[in-house]
């Protein structure tokens, strides 16, 4: 049996690129999706579950694993537009359920399944905006900040069990909901390097973390240096 990996949100966008790349690398992949109609890359083990129901989703995902997994990528996320002027406790709770509580439950199940056997890795997908915060997408940003804290705390808690926990924080990679194609073209590479971040960059970062057995509790920020500019708003609301 080859190494088993779990990727949440593996049916589309960045998650699909990660799933395809890990399959190419020889991993046995458990690909989580939200809806029964969602497809996954050929060769993956498909699991449909709503991460808002964290316990049931974790049960379904780990039941599909043919062996204790060695890699967990918490990629799936809720992303909705809000701000302080339209703050909703219900929207915050929905973000926290998917973006924080579900990764916490999956990480706990991952640790229980490991049973202290060898090097294992959890990778949480954050957002580069945490390095230079702005008030747009308030509930999403708060949830990603909490996930960053979870990364540190779980790395501390699980290091003695041979489980590493790290994070990757990418900047804008793909067209966002409500964003025009023209705005995306103008802002994708809006950073000091003048190079847009791609999903393949996240895949390369995961491969680096897999091959770095002494690295835990760290965040790799992939933003072309955009954080140094301290932008006052999310890039899709700017006119570069």
Automatic annotation (TrEMBL):
| Pfam families (UniProt xref) | adh_short_C2
Q: Does the keyword Phosphoprotein apply?
A: no
Cited InterPro entries: NAD(P)-bd_dom_sf, SDR_fam
Q: Which UniProt keywords apply?
A: Oxidoreductase
- Give a yes or no for keyword Lipid metabolism in this entry: no
Q: Which residues form a coiled coil?
A: none
Protein's UniProt name: SDR family oxidoreductase
Organism phylogeny:
Bacteria, Pseudomonadati, Pseudomonadota, Alphaproteobacteria, Sphingomonadales
């Amino acid at each position: 049996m080859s190494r088993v990996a779990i990727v949440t949100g593996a049916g589309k966008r960045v998650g699909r690129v990660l799933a395809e790349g890990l399959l190419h690398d020889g991993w046995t992949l458990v690909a989580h999706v939200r809806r029964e109609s969602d497809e996954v890359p050929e060769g993956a083990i498909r699991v449909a579950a709503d991460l808002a129901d964290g316990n049931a989703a974790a049960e379904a995902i780990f039941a599909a694993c043919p062996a204790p997994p060695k890699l967990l990528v918490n990629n799936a996320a809720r992303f909705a537009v809000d701000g302080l002027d339209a703050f909703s406790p219900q929207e915050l709770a929905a973000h926290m359920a998917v973006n924080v509580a579900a990764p916490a439950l999956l990480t706990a199940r991952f640790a229980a399944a490991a049973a202290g056997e060898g090097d294992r890795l959890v990778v949480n997908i954050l957002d580069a905006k945490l390095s230079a915060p702005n008030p747009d997408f308030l509930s999403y940003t708060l949830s990603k900040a909490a996930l960053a804290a979870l990364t540190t705390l779980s790395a501390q808690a699980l290091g003695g069990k041979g489980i590493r926990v790290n994070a990757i924080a990418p900047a804008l990679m793909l067209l966002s909901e409500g964003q025009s194609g023209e705005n995306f073209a103008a802002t994708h590479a809006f950073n000091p390097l003048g190079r847009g971040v791609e999903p393949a960059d996240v895949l390369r970062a995961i491969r680096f973390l897999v091959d770095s057995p002494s690295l835990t509790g760290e965040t790799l920020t992939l933003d072309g240096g955009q954080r140094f500019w301290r932008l006052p708003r999310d890039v899709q609301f700017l006119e570069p």
